[in-house]
Amino acid sequence: MLKGIDPVVSPELLHVLAAMGHGDEIAIVDANFPAAALARRLVRLDGVNSSCAMASILKLLPVDDFVDCPVAVIQVAGDTEAVPETVREFQSILNAAEAREVRIAPIDRLEFYRRSREAFAIVATGETRLYGCALVKKGVIRPSS
Questions:
Q1: Which domain holds residue 131?
Q2: Is 58 a member of any domain?
Q3: Active site residue 131
């Protein structure tokens, strides 16, 4: 145990987050996602939903503010305008963690899979709600003045 570290953040996840550099992406995915088949590095959080995982990760990981849309989610099949409950939760968590409006880009499922394959790591959660997946691009921590 460490002081100030959310217990959801396992030693393995802490190592992955610390090893990531600016512009690296981490995929936070639901229980239906083929994480083991696609991951370069796989971290399992089986008892945690994707919103909880995102909130815990964003306590430590800065979100990139050099790009317009630092977060991507999977578009709803057959309804590209739909915003699933999970994505609404992600938006709220992102905005609170970053103290700004963070833009989320919905992308095609196959594009999401391709980018997840290239991501620094995939965090596989126990999320059972559909569309509980997000790609988050790591930002920088600026020196304090």
A1: 20-137
A2: yes
A3: no
